[in-house]
Design brief:
Elements (H helix, E strand, L loop, with lengths): L2 H16 L10 E5 L5 H9 L16 E7 L7 E4 L4 E4 L2 H13 L12 E7 L5 E5 L15 H12 L5 E7 L8 H9 L6 E6 L6 H8 L10 E3 L18 H14 L2 H4 L6 E2 L1 H42 L6 H22 L2 H23 L29 H15 L3 H23 L6 H30 L10 H33 L2 H16 L17 H28 L13 H43 L4 H7 L2 H30 L10
Helix pairs in contact: 1-9, 1-20, 9-20, 10-13, 10-19, 11-12, 11-13, 11-18, 12-18, 13-14, 13-18, 14-18, 15-16, 15-17, 15-18, 16-17
Bound molecules: guanosine-5'-diphosphate.
Length: about 700
């Protein structure tokens, strides 16, 4: 029948993974006792190793859920901390060190924590047992211990000593049983003493008569009885004692020699239970008994939980299976679909528009610098300025000056580094589009995957940036010396530049409106502008202008006024140039010196066309081919070592789905195991344990 405990412990551990299982609880043996009652010594003698944290100031701060696995094939004894991913620790002093550190990780202010440490020990010499070591009860809080420590320990123990757990109540023989905190606690939750085993330690410290009397105690009768032990190990010093792995043998030798030297009190006729070996046997029997008695209710409860889980699975997810792999694959498909849609909508025309837009701005810069320049003088150094637009120089087509101006402007355009500008403009547009695609895709909920995709895009784009940029520059070389414009290109330039000027005009007017709002209205702005205009002409003295302003206007207001005057003048010029571009004179290519706007626009278009041809072949097509592969390879790198599960669980909706599927699978597994047990053990069920 002993196989039940092993299987049930396995089931218990599986059920713990299911999480929050309220209805299914399988019993464990909970060890309680006052500090120094010998609790650690008893546990260590059961396990056969010294592994618990020691030291005068060392109190257990977290429950240790200890699973002992009888493993006949284990060549050496070893421990595992499954939650920490620490496996096969054969050095028990290392286990002790780990436990000490885990214990210390609870801040002193918190006193104790109910977050258990899981430790599994495999050995051919241990019985299958599920034990929980709890902090020892303290009588009076020590000098350096927080006041509520006593209460917190007691509350923590109360949580664990509930049924169906079996209570191992440790009391020392040299302390009156009436004062045993462990027995007092057990009485509160198990008043009839049905699931408490009394362990009396330090039997060697009282005389045999008294010891035997305790073991047959009638004052606190326990159905599972008392066992007397002597679990003191030969003295060793140091915080981490050297583990001999032979603790049980030593202890039981000592016990035998003591108990057999008092046959009247402890011999077979005395009908008392003594010795750690007896205690171990008792624990195995009691746990097995308790587990078997729980077999049917546990089976029923798991059935119910599984039914509920299956129902939820149907209602919430229509029984749709879910794995992290499937989720990643679906997310990738979804993203690729979006990407293909983007790829078919972003090509030469879009690149042309982007690059031409950027060059339009450069054209405007050239025009402003060479043709429209009408600097606004600093107020304090008012310079004589042309009075109105009529004063602006007219481009006399015969004047070599204007020839030079246009040639320089055109050459400046071709030499501004169109290669770099083009690759940068397109690369950042593609990057922005990809980032936007990601934000529309399922990856939006996964910050790290999002970053991987974004980085994949910039890597692929950056790979080609230099060669593309150089290639463009090379192909533009002829234009750097001369640009030959056809009449048709001129015509297109004329139409296009009208739009560019209009947009620029709108911007000026928009900025003007903003200024009006900032200074507090149109009227106010007008006043400042009038002042600025006057000052510029030298009509009024402004020597007095200081950091605090002039003419009753603050310095900040004057700055706004200057800005407004600049915008107004620029708007006037643009208006005038729009008219010029539309005029009859600008119809013909021959008059190009009159119409620098049209000529430069046509040049910009030529540059754009050549650059786009290159960009398409060198950069965009390459990107479309390589980017999806790069994303897949970078994502799969990220999914290693638990990354896939972490990724899928970032999305709360998927996490819930995955949890439910996992829960269902675990419950099915547990049910299969427990039903197998029920069939095998049906004959044994209900067997009572007599001691
Ligand atoms: P805990 O605080 O309840 O875990 O108690 P320990 O197991 O650390 O034991 C407290 C002290 O009692 C230690 O010095 C042990 O060596 C000693 N001790 C434990 N069991 C026995 C025993 O059966 N006989 C004697 N004489 N001393 C014991």
């Amino acid at each position: 029948m002993m196989h039940i405990t092993k299987a049930m412990i396995e089931i218990r551990n599986l059920l713990q993974k299911v999480g929050q299982s309220n209805t299914v609880t399988l019993p464990a043996i909970v060890v309680i006792g006052s500090q120094s009652s010998g609790k650690s010594s008893v546990l260590e003698s059961i396990v056969g190793h010294e592994f618990l944290p020691k030291g005068s100031n060392m109190i257990t701060r977290r429950p240790i859920e200890l699973t002992l696995v009888n493993d006949p094939d284990a060549k050496v004894d070893y421990g595992e901390f499954p939650d920490l991913g620490l496996h096969r620790i054969t050095d028990f002093s290392l286990i002790q060190k780990n436990l000490t550190e885990l214990n210390m990780s609870v801040p002193e202010s918190e006193c104790v924590s109910d977050d258990p440490i899981h430790l599994v020990i495999h050995s051919p010499r241990v019985p299958d047992l599920s034990l929980i070591d709890l902090p020892g009860y303290i009588q009076v809080a020590g000098e350096n211990q927080p006041r509520e420590l006593k209460r917190k320990i007691s509350e923590l123990c109360d949580k664990y000593i509930r049924g169906p757990n079996i209570i191992l109540a440790i009391s020392a023989a040299d302390v009156d049983l009436a004062n045993s905190t462990a027995l007092q606690a057990s009485r509160r939750v198990d008043p009839r003493g049905e699931r408490t085993i009394g362990v009396i330690t330090k039997m060697d410290l009282v005389d045999p008569e008294k010891g035997a009397a305790i073991l047959t105690d009638r004052q606190y009768p326990l159905r599972l009885g008392y066992v007397g032990v002597i679990s003191k190990l030969p003295t060793q010093s140091g915080l981490f004692k050297r583990d001999t792995g032979n603790v049980l043998a030593t202890i039981s030798r000592n016990e035998k020699s003591y108990f057999s030297s008092h046959p009247d009190q402890f011999g077979p006729g005395a009908r008392v239970n003594t010795g750690t070996v007896t205690l171990r046997k008792k624990l195995m029997q009691v746990l097995e008994q308790q587990m078997s008695s729980k077999l049917q209710v546990t089976t029923d409860a798991i059935h119910r939980e599984l039914e509920e889980t299956s129902y939820q699975f149907k209602v919430q997810y229509n029984e749709e299976p879910m794995t992290a792999e499937a989720y990643l694959a679906a997310s990738l498909d979804d993203f690729k679909h979006l990407f293909h849609k983007f790829a078919s909508s972003f090509g030469r025309p879009q690149m042309h528009e982007l690059l031409k837009g950027a060059l339009d701005q450069r054209v405007l810069d050239q025009l402003a610098a060479r043709y429209w320049n009408k600097p606004i003088g600093d107020l304090s150094t008012a310079l004589p300025e042309p009075d109105s637009i009529a004063d602006l120089p007219k481009a006399d087509p015969k004047s070599p000056y204007w020839h030079l101006q246009l040639d320089t402007a055109s050459s400046a355009l071709t030499r501004l580094g169109v290669g770099r500008l083009a690759t940068t403009v397109v690369a950042s547009a593609v990057q922005a589009n990809i980032d936007q695609l990601v934000s529309k895709s399922t990856f939006a909920k996964h910050p790290s995957a999002r970053q991987v995709i974004s980085e994949a895009a910039s890597t692929v784009l950056a790979d080609r940036a230099y060669t593309t940029s150089d290639g463009i520059e090379f192909s533009l070389k002829p234009y750097k010396y001369e640009v030959d414009i056809q009449q048709q290109e001129w015509q297109q330039g004329r139409e296009h530049v009208a739009g560019v000027l209009k947009t620029e005009l709108d911007h000026c007017q928009g900025a003007m409106k903003n200024l009006e709002n900032v200074v507090g209205g149109k009227k106010k702005l007008k006043e400042v502008m009038t002042f600025v205009d006057k000052a510029r002409k030298g009509d009024i003295a402004v020597e007095g202008e200081t950091r605090n302003g002039a003419g009753g206007f603050s310095a900040a207001l004057l700055a706004k006024g200057r800005e407004a005057v600049f915008l107004r003048d620029r708007a006037d010029i643009i208006n005038m140039r729009m008219l010029a571009a539309k005029s009859r004179q600008c119809k013909s290519l021959e008059n190009k010196y009159y119409c620098p706007e049209v000529f430069l626009d046509a040049v910009a278009t030529k540059l754009t066309q050549t650059a786009v041809l290159f960009l398409n072949v060198e950069m965009l097509n390459d990107f479309y081919a390589r980017f999806p592969r790069e994303v897949e390879s970078k994502l799969s790198e990220q999914m290693h070592g638990g990354g896939l599960e972490r990724f899928a669980r970032e999305d709360p909706r998927i996490k819930r789905h995955l949890d439910l599927v996992k829960r269902k699978e675990l419950l099915e597994l547990v049910l299969a195991k427990i039903e197998g047990l029920s069939q095998m053990g049906s004959g044994d069920r209900g067997r009572e344990l007599h001691d």
